[in-house]
Write a sequence for this structure.
């Protein structure tokens, strides 16, 4: 699906207003999610966006596909040192202040830009880009709603095939196959340095409580020490809590969703904790109204859990493995703004999309949790984009 011309032009307009306000002469972008956002193509490109005028797309490969997929002018990129010449040939003045994506740009490539652009001051444009991308357009929200249709099919299939003797990895792989058949594209883009993320994960029983390298409340044991997160080779036991936490992607747009399952019966203790999780999620959803500061919402929810539940030490992890967020922005990347996290300064506005994920972790017993992708909407709170039923799914 091509991005509409009007959508791309509006994105460029917003960024150019920022460049003018902040005193940047232009921005040179290379991060795949950013270049896709502003150009409409995911080919290997650089895109230069001047303070005024049309962008210039410079493609390593594939030039022909980039020309088919974007509305902007595309030229071959034959070397980073040639970029200043390309700008001059396109009638664009050489910038004196140039925005780069400091949060993701390799140092070696930054040094190559320094050699190519003499007497130019480089500044970090990534905070402005990330904040712009945090607010989704009507077109983007429609794409997210399409993506959200995949998970319910996966969840229904999970109830059909769950049986004694399945390992976490086997269960996970069957569900990934179902997701791919239902439209999941198989790629989950993550911006954070050294971040690796699969389609999602099955966590069962005590394996769900194993801490690890991934910055999330439930990490999983993983299949090996080389990839120490996600599903393990352990057999899912009757009566264990099963966390079904999956990211699905359609047309590049991601939604994140978690539901609780079990084969047989689930302990009263875990069922009670899950009922509390549902209450926490609803309080969080209602708190997410335009004008609220993300960090203040986080503090409000943390205080409520401390004062009204017995699970303060189990919320969003356990011990030193607890994380300092209960929601993360999502869209073209899994880890977008805003985050509902400690100290977050972002002010919520309509169109911001967040995956909210309250979870409780009980060492050696298991975990319970829920996750939904929501959009900030109005005074009644955020609106659910993910629509699967929220009660535990018990298979007998």
């Amino acid at each position: 699906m091509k991005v509409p011309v009007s959508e791309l032009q509006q994105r460029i307009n917003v960024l150019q207003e920022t460049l003018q306000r902040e005193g940047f002469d232009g921005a040179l972008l290379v991060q795949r999610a950013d270049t896709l956002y502003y150009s409409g193509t995911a080919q290997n490109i650089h895109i230069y966006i001047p303070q005024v005028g049309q962008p210039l797309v410079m493609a390593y490969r594939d030039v022909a596909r980039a020309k088919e997929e974007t509305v902007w002018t595309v030229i071959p990129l034959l070397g980073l040192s040639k970029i200043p010449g390309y700008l001059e040939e396109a009638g664009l003045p050489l910038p004196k202040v140039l925005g780069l994506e400091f949060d993701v740009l390799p140092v070696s490539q930054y040094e190559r830009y320094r050699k190519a652009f003499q007497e130019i001051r480089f500044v970090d444009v990534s905070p402005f880009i990330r904040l712009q991308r945090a607010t989704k357009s009507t077109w983007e929200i429609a794409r997210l709603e399409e993506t959200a249709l995949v998970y319910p099919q996966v969840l229904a299939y999970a109830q059909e095939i769950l049986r004694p003797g399945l390992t976490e990895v086997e269960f996970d792989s069957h569900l990934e196959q179902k997701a791919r058949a239902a439209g999941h594209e198989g790629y989950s883009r993550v911006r954070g340095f050294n971040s690796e993320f699969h389609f999602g994960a099955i966590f069962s029983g005590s394996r769900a409580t194993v801490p690890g390298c991934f910055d999330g409340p439930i990490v999983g044991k993983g299949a090996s020490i080389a990839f120490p997160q996600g599903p393990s080779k352990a057999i899912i036991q009757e009566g264990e809590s099963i966390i079904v936490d999956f990211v699905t992607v359609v047309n590049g747009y991601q939604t994140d969703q978690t539901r609780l399952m079990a084969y047989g019966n689930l302990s009263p203790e875990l069922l009670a904790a899950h009922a509390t999780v549902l209450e926490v999620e609803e309080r969080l959803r209602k708190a997410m109204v335009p004008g609220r500061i993300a960090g203040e919402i986080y503090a409000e929810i943390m205080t409520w859990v401390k004062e009204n539940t017995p699970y303060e030490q189990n919320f969003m992890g356990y011990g030193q493995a607890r994380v300092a967020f209960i929601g993360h922005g999502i869209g073209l990347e899994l880890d977008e703004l805003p985050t509902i996290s400690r100290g977050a300064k972002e002010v919520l506005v309509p169109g911001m999309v967040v995956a909210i994920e309250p979870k409780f972790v009980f060492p050696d017993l298991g975990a319970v949790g829920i996750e939904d992708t929501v959009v900030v909407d109005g005074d009644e709170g955020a609106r659910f984009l993910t629509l699967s039923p929220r009660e535990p799914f018990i298979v007998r």
In short: Residues 138-395 form a domain with the Creatine Amidinohydrolase fold (CATH 3.90.230.10). DSSP finds eleven helices and 17 strands in the chain. Residues 143 and 167 are 33 Å apart (CA to CA).
